[in-house]
Amino acid sequence: MTGNQYLLFFLLFFLSFAACSDVEDEIILKPNGKAANSAELSAGSSTVFMSGINAYDTPAPWVTGDLNARFLRGDALYDNPRTSDQSDPLQGGLGPLYAGFSCGSCHNNAGRTYPSLFASGGSGRGFSSHLVYITRQNGSFFRNYGRVLHDQSIVGVQAEGKLAASFTEETFSFPDGEKYSLQTPHYKITEWYADSVAPEDLIIDVHIPLRHVGMGQIMALDHDELRRLAAQSNYPEYGISGRLSIISERNRQYVGTGGNKAHHADLTVELGFSSDLGVTNDRYPLEVCEGQSQNLGYSHYGIQITTREMEDVDLYMSALGVPARRNVNNQAVKRGEENFFRARCQLCHATTLHTRQDAPVLLNGTRLPWLANQTIHPYSDFLLHDMGKGLDNHVRTGSAYSYEWRTTPLWGIGLQAKVNGHTRFLHDGRARNLVEAIMWHDGEGAVSRELFRRMSKQERDDLIIFLNSL
Description:
Blueprint: H1 3-21, E1 47-48, H2 65-79, E2 97-98, H3 103-106, H4 116-119, E3 131-136, E4 152-153, E5 162-173, E6 179-190, E7 202-207, H5 215-219, H6 223-232, E8 234-235, E9 240-241, E10 245-249, E11 252-256, H7 269-276, H8 307-318, E12 322-323, H9 331-342, E13 353-354, E14 375-376, E15 384-386, E16 404-406, H10 416-420, H11 434-439, H12 446-453, H13 457-468
Parallel strand pairs: 1-12
Antiparallel strand pairs: 2-4, 3-7, 5-6, 8-9, 10-11, 13-14, 15-16
Helix pairs in contact: 2-8, 9-13
């Protein structure tokens, strides 16, 4: 080749490589036909421009053809109520003990159903939209009970127990005089199935549902990037030092990114059907009531949902779109974003991460290449942080100590009120709004809480406006 031919060859090679690999240069159009800017694209090519009741429950734009048919099947299996009719191959198998009657009963519109914890003062009679974990003070389980207290049951079977919740409230003031209140929950168990448990030996840990926003991206996160974040996430001047969650499952070690304690390495579809709904499957073939004398006779029905069906649910959750950021050019939103950084919130709520280059694999082998190699804005580092005594749940979960919690992803948080009709936040919903959620921060979150507390009312309001734009 001549020199000019070599130059032309390398130019063409560079252009073809850039065209194939630089996904961030892809132009994504909004419904109005205008190109979206990078600040709006919460989840790269999985971003959806929705801001109504279906903002969490809309497929990503790449869900088409056969993939869409499977998405819809998974959506139906997620939402349709299960029944105790063992002969129904699609919706049977509920119970005999359970917490919710479908995934959607707790995750309405793929969000957070208003918890019966507050609607009913504890366990509802028709379903429970929270999970109750019980352990002994030494961390072991009680005879006749596992870790989850199943507070609902089918006709003819007694639930394991019922949760009763009460709250004490304390009022505080910001330096400028504006008042806010914090509610502290108090729990007890009544109507025990078997032996009553002495309160002094009982730890009760209550969790409300997670928002199923960006679950596919969370499972596709670049773990090397998270390891680098953990190595660099040490800010002694602010008392912040996040750490990676390492969990052991099926004789292997994984990086945990799912759940309030980053204690899951997958979407736990199989576990959810078994423990939450009482539906047996290949991974969990035993009824959750196995060994309880009142429920003998329920173990002979066999597998009640197939792995293929559960993978469709896995696909549905992984392929949900993430709502785009809104009002990014609004001046109050811009001021609020500046205040977010002034309060050092970004040291834990990392604004930008990436998914890994290899395509995530679902539980039955399906690959989703559309989730690979994406720039995303979850506003989380997915690391464990000490959140102080006030949020200590007194239970070690996986590698997380009782006072440690995974940084909550903030994407889509401003749409929860539209999707689910409430603004209950934190793991147990004790915060009734975003201000209360911030003021519950302690431990490594204390610096942000104090910087927020010292802001003027206008500055605090702008920061909340920014959070509601996510």
